[in-house]
Amino acid sequence: MLQMKLCGDLVLRSKCDAVDTIDSELLKTMDEMVAMMHGQSGVGLAAPQVGILKRFLVMMDPESNQVFRMINPEILSHSDKTCTMEEGCLSVLGPDNLPVFANVTRPESVTVKWTDEQGRECRADMSGVPARIVQHETDHLDGKLFIDYLPPVRREMVMRKVRRKK
After folding, report:
1. What is the pLDDT of residues 139-154, one digit of tens each?
2. Comparing C-alpha atoms, which of 115, 108, 112, 141 is closest to residue 125?
3. 137 catalytic, yes or no?
């Protein structure tokens, strides 16, 4: 059974290696991650969040409820236009065991490519919330957390809440 890694665990700050082989173990893990994401009312979950240093993630478009299982995702381009939205993370929890939220500025839209579970290359232009989710989750694959985008004072406020949990 997969276990959520929390802020402070070094696995969340490690860069992930590419997935070489799509096998039944990977597919089973991705299914478990989708169940975990839904069970925690999340919209995305990346492999390092469950302790796996490989480049794959699961995410859901909250408007359509479409679930994406992305293997070796890569953001090819992003818009110059940015937007600021509230973000939280299932690995960054406060003392109430709920995600801590903060406003983060990111590109408004992205073009992303990935390999699906059948080994097919996929590509999509995403904007709004799905673009935000895929950027947040691909950051995890590079050892980056949403709090890294915050100004130092705001980041310290978020981290105070996280430390209170421990």
Report:
1. 999 999 999 999 999 9
2. 112
3. yes
Catalytic residue among 86, 108, 137, 156: 137
DSSP 18: P
Backbone angles phi, psi at 19, to 5 degrees: -80, 125
The pTM (predicted TM-score) of the whole model is 0.96
Paired tokens of 24: 């039944």
- Sequence-ordered list of residues with C-beta below 8 angstroms from that of 10, at least 6 positions apart, any chain: none
Structure tokens at 42: 């999340």
Give the C-alpha distances (Å, rounded to integers) separating 59 from 54, 64, 81, 130, 163: 16, 12, 23, 8, 27
Asked if 62 and 43 count as a contact pair (C-beta separation under 8 A), the reply is: yes
Which pair of tokens denotes residue 112? 């992303």
Contact 17, 52 (CB under 8 A): no
